[in-house]
Amino acid sequence: MQPYEAVIFDSDGVLVEPTDQGLYSTALREAFEDHGIADPHEGHLDALRSVTRDDLDRICGAYDLDPEAFWRSRDRCASAVQRTAIADGRKPAYDDLDAVFTINRPCAIVSNNQQRTIETVVETHGLGEVMTSYYGRQPTIEDIQRKKPHPHYVERALSDVGTRNALFVGDSNADLLAAERTGIDVAFVERPHRTNYQLVSEPDHTVTGLDGVAELVG
After folding, report:
1. pTM exceeding 0.90
2. What are phi and psi of 147, to 5 degrees?
3. Which of 99, 189, 202, 211 has the fewest CB atoms nearer than 10 Å to its CB?
């Protein structure tokens, strides 16, 4: 096939390290406290880390909370703790991030994290120099449905980079499925946190880091 004309990256687990689960717990407890709940169920905290709309409705029903209002609190608190962690080095970029700056192709980011969090990643690490666009979720219930593997934001990124001959770089089954649903190739990054991770399908490429992505693109 022809060389890839663009690259779309996931963020967490690809460009920057995943968020420590303890930070998520802190953020989620703060969100509940905003609504007068001091001791939420641990199972509800776990479910809210990577939530579906059904999960949100079920959990809010258990506390008689308005889902829209609670979701705004949840996303605001989750983004705030992550942006602080990015700034103080508790959520660092991977050592091979510089490889992204060697890719002479249009690039973009599509993440299931919040848009404000992705903006902080881009600003902190100077990625605005090389990214045509970057998408995270908006803090709305509607955008829960647009998380990968839904192709919504991947399609927007493809429109931005101006080609469908693109490579998606991710570290999760959601990334693999989002690439499949948009009809583009995918490279799976085998970071340490993905040891023994079970893939739902075979990626087009497997790399151990961003240097490998740069080599693939050429």
Report:
1. yes
2. -65, 150
3. 202
